[in-house]
Amino acid sequence: MTFRHRHFGRGGLIETAEVLEGRLHGEAGDQEEPTPEVQWSRKGGCLLFVRRKTPWKKNGCETVPCSATWMRKDVGSVSPEQSPQGKRQHVIEVCNFVDAGTSIALLAQAREDFHEQTALETVITFLHRYGRPRQMTFDRDPRWVGGVSGRDFPSPLRRLLLCLGITPHVCPPHRPDKNPYVERFHRTYGQECLQVHQPSTLQEVREVTEAFLQHYNNERPHQGRSCGNVPPRVAFPTLPTLPALPQRVDPDAWLVPLDQKVYLRHVGRDGCVDVDLATYYLGPQMAGWSVLFQVEAQSRQFAVWHQDQVVKLLPIKGLVGQEMALDDYLQYILQEALAAPRRASARRSRKVRQPPLWGEGA
């Protein structure tokens, strides 16, 4: 995800945007040609979930495509007359989910407190309303993939998707061309809504966004090939239905895609090593050794390798170990999202994380 700033209007308001791109099986915004990845995604009927970063996506396919756009604005929330300290600044972000194939805007949520937990709540709201897509693609913003250090296992968002049977895909960094559909919607939303009305409070952002979505879906002609120069809701009055969320969830299902993944570690003088946010004890006799921690997903253990031999089997920490009802699982993963930044910060304050042998630990 790339960061973009726009200075406009009275008071020097700053507009920034973070874009989440949904599943593609139509055309991008006005007269933009899809990339090869877009064409592949459309044929596969997958839901992509991509986001563009700032300082701080004819039916006939099987699932509803969607994109979500984050608009970030620094606005004055209190006037000098209301506050003895003068005008203060705060940030409002709007997460908009848009059907990338039909360009229908599905959902918009404006908040002043988007962080790892509240961003996950927004995704859960969308999934409750529209069901499960096959795949979601998103960028490397820490609120989605976790911090740049301190994590070897998937972030709460990626674990949520994996446990619900949705394949997560991380968009390459600095590649806005990978989400042309939502880039076009973001430009329209910014130019025809935010820059025109210049909302300065959370309530104003919600009001102008709701009015714009009604205009965008039902009145504004869309020049994308899938819409044929008519409003998206006119071209596509109905959307296909996605599978509903399961009633019971295995909270450890995210471990299966990591099966046989290997992490290289150097055993400390205390005989311990860190993997993800947990400490594992190997013993003082292994101090100074270089070892490999290999994930055994079926047994939910680490096989510890040294010099072509398995020297120890350790249970993986932090697993639940049993299925949970959907509502219980969603509460659990939201608490994990809330606690993850604090845990990673505490871990970094003690020692530097050792990187995995290969692959990504986000």
Outline the secondary-structure elements.
Elements: E1 5-8, E2 13-20, H1 36-44, E3 67-78, E4 88-98, E5 105-111, H2 116-130, E6 135-138, H3 142-145, H4 156-163, E7 167-170, H5 180-197, H6 202-218, H7 232-235, E8 248-249, E9 262-266, E10 272-275, E11 278-281, E12 290-296, E13 301-306, E14 309-315, E15 324-325, H8 326-350
Helix pairs in contact: 2-8, 4-8, 5-6
Structure description:
The chain is an alpha+beta fold. Helix content is 28%, strand content 24%. It folds into two domains: 5-235, Nucleotidyltransferase, domain 5; 252-319, no CATH class. The strands form five sheets. A five-stranded antiparallel beta sheet has the order 1-2-3-4-5, covered by helices on one side. It has a four-stranded antiparallel beta sheet with strand order 9-12-13-14, with no helix packed on it. Mean pLDDT is 75; it is low at 1-65, 73-88 and 356-362.
- Quaternary structure: single chain
CATH architecture of the largest domain: 2-Layer Sandwich
E-strand count? 15
The number of domains? 2
What Rg is obtained from the alpha carbons, in whole angstroms?
23 Å
Q: Count of DSSP helices?
A: 8
Mean pLDDT: 75
Which CATH top level class of the largest domain fits? Alpha Beta
Spatial strand order of the main sheet? 1-2-3-4-5
Computed structural class: alpha+beta
- CATH fold category name of the largest domain: Nucleotidyltransferase, domain 5
The CATH superfamily of the largest domain bears the name Ribonuclease H-like superfamily/Ribonuclease H
Low-confidence sequence ranges: 1-65, 73-88, 356-362
Order of helices and strands, N to C?
EEHEEEHEHHEHHHEEEEEEEEH
